[in-house]
Amino acid sequence: MSEPGPSTIAHTRPVTPPPPSSMHDASLQLTPERVRQVELNRLRGPIHSAKARQREKEASTVASSVRNANSKRPLSVVPAVSGSPTAPSKKAGSDKLQRDARLGKYFDYDLSKMVNSKGGFLVEDDKELDDRSKAKERERERQRAVQNVDPPIYLDASRNPKCHECGSMDIDQMYRKVFRCLVCNKCKNEKVEKYSLLTKTECKEDYLLTDSELKDEELLPHMLKANPHKSTFANMMLYCRYQVEEFAWKKWGSPEALDAEWEKRTAEKKKKKNRKFEQGLQELRKRTREGVWQRRKDAEHKHEFSETTTNEDGVGVQVCYECGFTIEVEEF
Question: Strands 316-319 and 326-329, how do they pair?
């Protein structure tokens, strides 16, 4: 008989036996008591989870209401499901304040966009105001542009105007066109006391001229210039100094008469101001005296007497309730 080879011995070597099937079957077999307990636990699962959530909610509510050593509630994040007024809202801005129907009809205006048009109306949108301002600005620019047009210069030197001061042909065209004055730029800058420009306010205050005289271009020609304070303001009216002085000397007679009139008006203005101040001071003193007198009258004691009673001597007397002052009364 031949001996078995290595391959045959490997196939016949014993291995670890599997677990007995009898033990596995025994573990799967449950008694009726165990099956009943499993069913009860399965039915009680949702109830226990709901009770656990309720207990957690109550615990969080109690913890937020408990005060610490400083009589303050502990700092905690308010849950979204909380009924607290500080809880985060689900939809911010969804609950708007309802208008009371008893107020009737009304117009809702945004006061932050209101513009005072100085005409008795409130303009809600500033578009109309801007359009009017732009139109006025364009008109002022057009008026200034008309003055800035330079006249032509001839090739023949004899036909060109010359400066009255030095005879130069370098004429300031603005002075020539507006003030009808032939002066060059050099003489204009050197002789400031004659060719400088005066504003309308200076002409009224220093030379005592009126608005009607200053607006008449035949008497006093003027130059229009953009207002330096704001472009939307009215154009400045500028006058040539020597023309204003000539008209003022003609109106008042002489420079001395103008100075006398100016001093007279200044004194009258000062007297009027002092008179107004004295009147205000007298009214203040009068109100002060009346106030002191009224306080004294209010502070005076007024007797309130009781009914007439008879004293030991048989004389009727009345006694003040507050101060106890007594007077004798004779009854008829």
Answer: antiparallel
Contact 51, 45 (CB under 8 A): no
Q: How far apart are the first and last CA of the chain?
A: 177
Q: Mean pLDDT over all residues of the chain?
A: 77
* Spatial separation of the C-alpha atoms in residues 257 and 259, rounded to whole Å: 5
Rounded distance, CA 160 to CA 170, Å? 10
User: Above pLDDT 90, what percent of the chain?
Assistant: 24
Which backbone phi and psi does 167 adopt, to 5 degrees?
80, 15
**Farthest CA pair distance, the chain:** 177
Residue 328 has phi, psi (to 5 degrees) of -95, 140
Nearest Cα residue to 140 out of 1, 233, 3:
233
Give the type of residue at 95. Answer: D
Output helix, strand, coil percentages for the chain, rounded to the nearest 5: 50, 10, 40
Select the more confidently predicted residue: 173 or 264: 264
Cβ burial, residue 203 (10 Å; 0-12/13-18/19+) = buried
Residue entry with tokens 């008989």: 1
CA atoms within 13 A on the CB side of 113: 9
Contact, 233 vs 227, CB < 8 A? yes
Contact, 127 vs 148, CB < 8 A? no
Write out pLDDT tens, residues 177-192: 889 899 999 999 999 9
Q: Per residue in 40-50, pLDDT tens? A: 877 777 666 77
User: 223, 181 in Cβ contact below 8 A?
Assistant: no
121's tokens: 């109306």
Contact status, residue 125 vs residue 117, Cβ threshold 8 Å: no
Residue 10: pLDDT band (50, 70, 90) is very low
Amino acid at 71: S
Strands 316-319 and 197-199: unpaired
